[in-house]
């Protein structure tokens, strides 16, 4: 097993499930010290349990926070620094999908909620982690965008708008901070079988969501859902020194679907 992250501190939001959990497990196996953030403390405990099964000596700090709350973001950053004195890598991942509806019927409160987590939360995280990394003179940030941030997604106005915003923040900030030894990139997942995607399918048809899922992936050239661990491999690469000259990139991981049309 590689030790790419030996001595490195990696901060991950949305670490209680899905992409955050898979990425935390991957970097822990490669020697990282972890600061894990989620709104659900019980989910964080499960992630820690899974990490210790594969990396028994891993240092894992668990922090409960709502990423849409600026003060709670400042707190998770400051507590990470209190424990580890630095942040080498930041997977800025926490997000929600929100309810599905036509734009004219999309609730204003729902729109604000989705944008609050997916866009404001990413901005707050970048703002306060960048302060740390700029002082260090180094660091890597990986934001979670979506294929919905590089093309349209029907019935998901809040989600698509927020993820387009994440793409813009990533490209803009990468240009700003490259001179300080900091790289900022985004991943753009497609249909990855996470609890969030399962919930989305259940919104369409609660009784037959698995069949809906089978139909959903047919336009994908690979005819399947991606696995969270497949995204975790990409995140680990982008947080590693192997990706030192990659900056302001938005990298789809969707089986080729975004290139098909």
TrEMBL record:
<dbReference type="InterPro" id="IPR036291">
    <property type="entry name" value="NAD(P)-bd_dom_sf"/>
</dbReference>
<dbReference type="Pfam" id="PF13561">
    <property type="entry name" value="adh_short_C2"/>
</dbReference>
<comment type="similarity">
    <text>Belongs to the short-chain dehydrogenases/reductases (SDR) family.</text>
</comment>
<dbReference type="GO" id="GO:0016491">
    <property type="term" value="F:oxidoreductase activity"/>
</dbReference>
<keyword id="KW-0560">Oxidoreductase</keyword>
<protein>
    <submittedName>
        <fullName>Oxidoreductase</fullName>
    </submittedName>
</protein>
<dbReference type="GO" id="GO:0008206">
    <property type="term" value="P:bile acid metabolic process"/>
</dbReference>
<dbReference type="InterPro" id="IPR002347">
    <property type="entry name" value="SDR_fam"/>
</dbReference>
